[in-house]
Amino acid sequence: MSQALISAFSSPSNRHRVRFHDQMADPAGEQSLLEAITVGLTDSPRWISPKHFYNHRGSELFDQICQQPEYYPTRTEEAILESSVADIAARAGGEIDLIELGSGASHKIRLLLDALRPHHYVGVDISRDFLLENTQRLADDYPWLSVHALCADFTAPFSLLELEGDARPVVFFPGSSIGNFTPREAGELLGRVHDQLPPGGGLLIGVDRIKDRNRLEAAYNDAAGVTREFNLNLIHRLRDELDAEVSPEDFEHLAFYNESASRIEMHLVSQRDQTFSLDDQTIALTAGEHIHTENSWKYSRAGFETLAGHAGFTLQGHWSDDQGLFDVHYFERST
C-alpha cells in the first residue's frame, strides 16, 4: 500500500528536508485517547496501554531514563552495536533502506549509519512533534541521507513505506521495545513486519535477557526518580488533555519483576480513595488500587529466536555483551 506524502519538514534554506508521512492523520476507525484510556480504566483490573506514555513530554522523559546509571539496556545495546557494527554491516548492509521502529531520539541509529550507508532512513514513532524534531536533526547531521518521518502506531497494523529505488529494506527495532508486547502480540507484530518485507528483507532487533531480579528492578526504579515521573506522566495526560480532575500527587509508581511471567510490571497505585470523571464515565479508585501501565517481557536467547522463527524469520547473526545482559539479533525473511 503506497503512502501519501503529507509534507516536507524543513524551514531555513540551509536545512535538509525530512519527508513526513502520517498514518495517524485519519481518525476513522481509530480510538481517541479518551476512548482508549476509558476502556482500560473501566476494566477490571484497570490498565492503560504503555503507548500512551509517549506524548512529547513522555518521549523526553524516556530519553532521560536511558541515561540513568541503573538503566543498563541502553548503554549495553549501544556498546554491542558499536563493537559489532562492522560485522552487522557485513551481514545486513549493501544496497539497503533502514526503517527504525520507535525511533525516539534517534541515538542508536547514528551508530549504524556510516557503516551501513542506507539510501533512505525512515524513523517511525507515535509522538509526532518529537519524531519531527529528531529526524530533522538527523537530516542536518547526515546530508547525504534521504530522511523520512513516519508517524504511526506500530502496536496496531501499519504499512511500511514504499521508497524510491530497489534497495533492500532492513527494519531496526532497538531498545527491547518488543518486550512491551505479550509474547503472542510480539509474535503477531513480527509476523506483520515479516509479511511486509520482500525475500531477503532484514530485521535487526535488540532484546533484553532474563536476569537477576535485583538488576531488573533497579533499572525500573532509578534513584533520580525519572521512571517514576515517566509513569506519572499518564496522570498528567489525564488531567491536562482529558480534563480529568485528578492529581499526580495522589498516585505512586510501582515497578517489580514478575518472575513466573519473566516480565517487569509497572503500575500506578492510588494513594487514597478518589473519584474522577472521563467524559460521561465515573472512575472510582480505592486506596491501594493499581492501574497496570506497562509490561516488559524478558527473553532467553533461544526463546526469542524461536519466537522470530515462528513469525517466518531466519537467524543470520547474533551479538551480545560479555555479561549476557542483552542480545542483538539479525534475521532475514527467507521466503
Low-confidence stretches: 1-6
At CATH level 3, the topology of the largest domain is Rossmann fold
Query: What is the helical fraction, as a range of percent?
Result: 25-40%
User: Which CATH-level-2 architecture of the largest domain?
Assistant: 3-Layer(aba) Sandwich
Gyration radius, rounded: 20 Å
**How many β strands by DSSP?**
15
% residues in beta strands: 25-35%
Distance between the termini: 20 Å
Count of helical stretches: 9
Mean pLDDT: 91
**Largest sheet features:** 9 strands, mixed
Please state the structural category: alpha/beta
Total of domains: 2
Order of strands, widest sheet: 1-2-6-5-4-7-8-15-14
Order of helices and strands: EEHEHHEHEHEEHEHHEEEEEHEE
What is the overall silhouette? globular
What is the CATH superfamily label of the largest domain? Answer: Vaccinia Virus protein VP39
CATH hierarchy class name of the largest domain: Alpha Beta
How would you summarize the topology of this molecule?
Elements: E1 7-9, E2 18-22, H1 33-41, E3 46-47, H2 56-65, H3 72-92, E4 96-101, H4 113-116, E5 120-125, H5 128-141, E6 146-151, E7 168-173, H6 183-196, E8 202-208, H7 213-219, H8 226-242, E9 251-258, E10 263-270, E11 274-278, E12 281-285, E13 290-297, H9 301-310, E14 313-320, E15 326-333
Parallel strand pairs: 2-6, 3-13, 4-5, 4-7, 5-6, 7-8
Antiparallel strand pairs: 1-2, 8-15, 9-10, 10-13, 11-12, 14-15
Helix pairs in contact: 2-8
Keywords: Methyltransferase, Transferase
InterPro entries: EgtD, EgtD_Methyltrsf_superfamily, MeTrfase_dom, MeTrfase_EgtD-like, SAM-dependent_MTases_sf
Domain Histidine-specific methyltransferase SAM-dependent: 35-332
